[in-house]
Amino acid sequence: VQLVESGGGTVQPGGPLRLSCVTSGFVFSDYGLSWVRQAPGKEREYVGTINRNGSIYYRSTVEGRFTISRDDAKSTVYLQLNSLQIEDTGMYYCQKGDSRGQGTQVTFS
Questions:
Q1: What is the CA angle 6-20-37, rounded to 5?
Q2: Which of 31, 24, 26, 34 is nearest to 3 (CA)?
């Protein structure tokens, strides 16, 4: 299983960002994937999940601002971040079961 996140960067509060996670090593369409994040000095926390049937769940603090989507043809899952808040800073990871990528960093200017 390989998960490679990208798309992080430095943004201003309120700004958008789109994260991607390209996967390999498993049949992508058979699995749900999640996004998690970890801010400096804090515990890792759940952001949301997209299941293989397309159903989606979010933590309450990001619902309405973040959107998870998937492209089964590209074995890729996305996380669109809108109306970013300072509290959203951190390393974002996509996750399949116990496997996570190396993460992509979201910081604020």
A1: 75
A2: 24
Q: How far is CA 100 from the centre of its chain?
A: 11
Task: Using only the alpha carbons of the chain, give its radius of gyration.
Answer: 13
40-56 confidence digits (pLDDT tens): 999 999 999 999 999 99
Q: Interior CA angle at 4 toward 42 and 84, to 5°?
A: 50
98 contacts: CB under 8 Å, gap ≥ 6: none
Give the span between the Cα atoms of 72 and 12, in whole angstroms. Answer: 31
Q: What is the pLDDT of residues 69-85, one digit of tens each?
A: 999 999 999 999 999 99
pLDDT category at 86 given cuts 50, 70, 90 is very high
Spatial distance between the Cα atoms of 80 and 106, rounded to a whole number of angstroms: 12
| Token pair in block for residue 97 | 């079961």
